[in-house]
Amino acid sequence: MLVNLDTAYEDTTAAELSLALDTPEQPALHLLDLGRLTRLGRPGTRLQLRLLGASHQVVLDGPDGGLIETVACLPGRRPELPASLADPATGYRFTARVRQLGPARLSECAARLRRDLAGDPYALVGVFPGGPDAITALRVGRPGGRDAAGAGRIGWRTWHAYPGSGEVVETETVVAAV
Fold first, then answer.
1. Which residue in 158, 156, 165 sits closest to 52, CA to CA?
2. How far apart are CA 127 and CA 3, in angstroms?
3. What is the pLDDT of residues 11-42, one digit of tens each?
4. Cα separations (Å) of 38 from 10, 64, 87, 90, 178?
C-alpha cells in the first residue's frame, strides 16, 4: 500500500534513529492492520505496521505475548541504531545497515520500493512531503516468498530513505511467532 503523508518527517538522517523494544504504541500517521494472520504465524497472531513522523513501528501480538519494535527518532533517548541485536530467549533478531547513495542511486532505490511495494498487501510505503524519494517502507515476509522467515517465525524488512543526507537505512527483523 502506497500512501502520501501530509506531515514532514521528524528524523532526517540515519544518525537520529534508535531501536526500542520498550516503547508503547505511538500515534501513527498511517497504519496497515494485517489483523490476525494465521499464515504469518500461529493462529491468533496480530500484526500491525505503523508509519510514524519519526519513522516506523511494528506491533506484534500473539497468544503468548507481544512485541513492539520502534525504529525512530525518540525524544529522551540517545540515538543508537545497532548493526545487530539478538535475543535467543525470545527468538528476536534485528539487523540494520546504512547505505550512502548518490542522488541518482537513492532516487532509483526509492522508485523501486514504491513500484514493488505499492500493490503488496503485506507492505506499507509512506511518501513524505518534499519529494518522492523521502520514504519509509515496511514489508512483512510471506511464507513461501523470498522474505519468508520460516516455520513458526515472522519477519519484516524496512527501508528509510533520506534524500538530504543521501542515506538509506535498511532493517530486517525475524522473531518467533508469539
1. 158
2. 6
3. 688 999 999 998 999 999 999 998 765 555 55
4. 35, 14, 24, 20, 12
Is the pTM here over 0.90, yes or no?
no
Mean pLDDT of the chain: 86
The DSSP code sequence of the chain is -EEE-SS--S--SGGG-EEESSPPPPPPSEEEEEEE-GGGSSTT-EEEEEEETTEEEEEEEETTEEEEEEEE--TTS-----SEEEETTTTEEEEEEEEE--HHHHHHHHHHHHHHHTT-TTEEEEE-TT-TT-EEEEEE--TTSTT---TTEEEEEEEEEETTTTEEEEEEEEEE--
Grid coordinates of 41: 504465524
- The residue-averaged pLDDT of 42-56 equals 84
